[in-house]
Amino acid sequence: MIRVEEKEASYASKSSKIIPIIKQVVKEYSKENIVILGRYTKQIQNLQKKFGKKAKIVGMIFDGKHLLNNTDIFIGSGGTMTAESALLGIPTISYNAVPNIIESYLVKKFLVKRETNPMKVCNDIKKIFTTSNKEYQKRVKKILDEMEDPIQKLTSVIKQ
């Protein structure tokens, strides 16, 4: 699954890092089920024109967690779905369109691989497909075990 970057927010850059990555991925992995998750009607229409015969283009009409649970590899812009994907144990590549502290933390903990070069993204995909996921799963579990349950924290703060 490939999540295209935010284009409408004030913090978003106007240059697209993802189009060259998508082109390379659909070229090298044409036999795979490639899903591109768009954000806006016009963006989805443009993706459909460019890649509609080579990939499935969908909008955010699906439950994100359901989509991620049926994903082997996630390529995202570094935002919320990138973090969710990594913490669900899905091998994740970030093209870092939206630099933030969470993405940086996950990269530092080796739960997210940051890459913008289309050829290197495809090489990373190949490595993911050809290696065991056990070490990655151990890292994910370790990080999750170190995290606090936000519900408990919020309840505690509200009671105070």
Task: Give a written overview of the molecule.
The protein has a three-stranded parallel sheet, covered by helices on one side. It has a three-stranded parallel sheet with strand order 4-5-6. It is mainly alpha-helical and 160 residues long. Helix 1 crosses helix 6. Helix 1 links the parallel strand 1 and strand 2. The longest helix is centred in the C-terminal third of the chain and has 13 residues. The protein contains eight helices and six strands. The protein is 50% helix and 11% strand. It has a single domain, classed as Glycogen Phosphorylase B (Rossmann fold).
Helices, strands, pairings?
Blueprint: E1 2-3, H1 18-28, E2 35-37, H2 41-51, E3 56-58, H3 64-69, E4 74-76, H4 80-87, E5 92-94, H5 101-108, E6 112-114, H6 118-130, H7 134-146, H8 150-159
Parallel strand pairs: 1-2, 2-3, 4-5, 5-6
Helix pairs in contact: 1-6
